[in-house]
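A sample follows:
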Amino acid sequence: MKKIERVIERMMNDLLYYFVATDIDDLDPLLRTLHFFVQSVDQSRLSKRIVDKRVVRRVFTEQMPLHLPLFTDESFVAYQIINDFYYACLLEKIITRQEYTMIILLLRENREIFFQRMTNPDYWSERKIRTLDEWMLDDKEYDTKIDTMAFETSKIIEFPQKKGTAPPRARECSYQLRIDIQGCKPPVWRRLVLPEGSTFEQLHHLIQIMFSLENNPHYFFEIRNEIIKNPELSFRFDAAKKVQIDAYLQRGSQFKYVNSSTGNQFFKIVVEKVLDQVFAIPCCAKAKGLTADASDLDLKRIDREMHEYWKSD
């Protein structure tokens, strides 16, 4: 058995754990990350290049953010997968304890650069942006065969020093969101265009209208490890009525919405685009799949109800 096969076999339990315990819908982002990394470092031979600090740093901080197609939230799991890869190499005696410690420290020292670039579309290659756009808009299957030899290393650009904030925008905008009920087959989702300056409470009401949900006060959003809840139920969490969406939304970012009227079923929300156009009122641009309480997919009715809510709010 080849060294890479032994390592992956040893990692399988960890990969399955991520699949169960995180927001990742399948194992593909994890395998894609692992494949890209080992191919870029030494063509999956697991030679001494995997502990070459210069090579590892270049792949980790330059090539992965530039070329590896991952959505924003998947980058946090990708970082841990690389750490797990080196631990598996240690257990398989491919690297020494000293080499393992050296690389883990290297990854830790460079993780802020990694996260900044993995979550900033300004650094991504055109090919990466085009691929992510296709996946979000066309529901295409992921293509895990990535030709790392075709990539070109470009000049590294500087990033804002303040971590966790959206890049400044020169003009007003709107957001195109795709909202999926997780675990539904066939898929049930809605595409929402949301004006800039909207609050999470307003987004909650719009989701209820689009999916024909009962008006239930027990809901929350989970985004960037923060919980944003109904203002009447927010004791130690941020109140949804006060929190605007703009500081949180960038193209490619993902977050959760949970409403107890659906039995605490999770909704996955993806920011598909940040639009230059300014929309004064929200609209449901597209819908697919019926919920249990919906009798039809009448977009005109959905938009009419959303407009009535928006005017009364």
In short: The longest strand covers residues 265-275. Confidence is low (pLDDT under 50) at residues 139-171. The radius of gyration is 21 Å.
